[in-house]
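Continuing from the previous page of notes. For each protein in this section, the sequence appears first, followed by its structure tokens. Read the first protein now.
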Amino acid sequence: MTTVTIKGFVHHSKSGSTGADEFTFFTFDATGSSMGYSLVGPGEFTYELPADFNPVGSRLKQLAAQREKACKEFADTVRRIDSEIGKLTAIANEVQA
């Protein structure tokens, strides 16, 4: 097993829906963000990685999702362009008639 120690900062905020206290850990000081975090203080935690930990599977899922999103955005853009071409072609044909 491998031991990983992560250092960062504990922050406090109030839940927007319930008003309950919430605590979050970031590896950076997020007090300047628009989320309304107050710095509680520095902190660290240690985690034992399983001996068979391999991030490749997780990264492949992320890349597949990014690819799917990019393909959808591309197809949507092509449809929008084709629609505009069709409209302009129709207008050009009406003017010539």
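Done with the first. The second protein uses the same format. Note its length before scrolling.
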Amino acid sequence: MVTFIQDEATLTLMDNREILKAHGFFENHTRLIWINRSRRIAFTEDVIDDHDRRWLESKLLEDIPEGEFRLHSNRPLAPKVCMEILDELGLSNLLPVNPSRP
């Protein structure tokens, strides 16, 4: 009998990406970030890797104030990088907010 074991970290990674896909996110492979333009929110690969599904789901439930775009990452993103991402999305009129993990 063959038993397949999937470690918890791999399962969490798969779950988080599936959750993002189900919520209309697309992956930007160049910037290693998952983005949802209409919801005005993005998650870097590192923050997805380092958090469980409950954390991600709680962030997806947050209200994003009008005029803001939320960029979740483990470390602060340079303001220039945030603006470049918004420019690429055609959303340069929004204020980038990067509530990085402490």
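What the second structure shows: The longest strand covers residues 68-72. Confidence is low (pLDDT under 50) at residues 1-6. We return to this in next week's lecture.
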